[in-house]
Amino acid sequence: MNMGPKIRIRFSQNSSEEFQRHHPGSLVAMESRHRAEVQRETGRAQNATGSVGRPDINLGATNDVIGSGLKQAKVLILAYYRSGSTLTGSFFNSLPGVFYTFEPLHAVFKNADRQRSLKYFSGKVRTAPKWEEISNLSLEILQAFYSCDLEALDWHTITSGFGAKSTAYAEYIGCLRSTPLNSNNRENVRRNCLPGLIQRCKSSKTIVVKTIRVHMTLAEELLKVIPDLKIVHLMRDPRGMACSLQRKQCRGSLANVNDMCARLTTDVLRRRALAHVHPESVCSVKYEDIIQTPLRTVMNMFKFLGLVFHSDVAKWIFYTLFSGHQSNGPLSITKSNSIATAYNWTRRIHWDVVDRYQQTCADFLREEHYPVFYDIVDVRKFRVTERNLTEQVLELQQFWSQKDGGDLAV
Questions:
Q1: Residue 7 lies in a domain
Q2: What secondary structure letter does DSSP report for 165?
Q3: pLDDT digit string (tens) for 288-323?
Q4: pTM assigned to the model
Q5: Domain for residue 331, yes or no?
Q6: Which long-range contacts (CB under 8 A, 24 or more apart) does 108-111 make?
């Protein structure tokens, strides 16, 4: 079965040791230092595998208890803006028994930006968070979601409209909409709306949080306090993300390219160091793989997480990627041609954007095996191997019919 395009790598294929000798400041050199640091911190150093490439999704044995109702699984989707995180999160949201939370840190980041104080159900008021306090505050919020201690959250976080993007929040959002959201009604929300949401969280088989506001270093800290946490590192070609951000002309400001590339590179080396110590806790998934081979990629991701791949997920994959429904806009997850949409940036992007990202994100592009282009003609000629649409639909049909006897309407 075709797993996607064979990409031409235009960097030399030196061994990691040789590359490190000649490029001491490279990602490979930094990775070895960070790996040693993680091993010292945990005290659980393991032998290196001898390869430097990204850890593939582990298809080995999984914990059958997770996701089966005997133990609550906890998953963190660590992603980036315009990286396909909403689509990826929707696969979990379609899985029965999942308590899915969409961007729980949005409100606290907004409060920090606007310098608004944080108010709690207990009556406590915390002064407007400073940016240097955001990491610790984010850790507190995530712990509250994973422990279902939702009453401990600040008012803006627990009443964020982003809850409407999760089926688990449906009744709670309905309750909020029938209750004016002001300080006089906080007790009504706590008494009438919140208990049902907390019970839904506690009774769920799996708790999933999707966020673009967490760096891998913070995920490491979260893993220390939640040892059974599973981390999915979702990535996309940064040139595609940049083009998606600049939707009209795929050009514009390059002011954030240094920050984006630095975060991508740092997250990769931290993930690899973490995976050498806790291989069962972290995996990497590419948006491009989800688009090109969705059934296989999502099933493998679920297998790593120990989750049962339900027929509802197959139906959702079909609806969002293959049903032919038109997109409802640039932020919609439903695409009439998902592969064309994912690689549309190669038709629209300007060379100055490509060139800047290839220089600044060189380490990330090389280590994650993304193609590097010589000029704009090279970019325009880029093609991915599209699997036949009928073949993919039949694959989904086969899985669906085996599970519940239904057929996909093509």
A1: no
A2: G
A3: 999 888 888 999 999 999 998 888 888 888 888 876
A4: 0.78
A5: no
A6: 108/134, 108/137, 108/138, 108/141, 108/154, 108/156, 108/157, 109/134, 109/213, 110/156, 111/154, 111/156
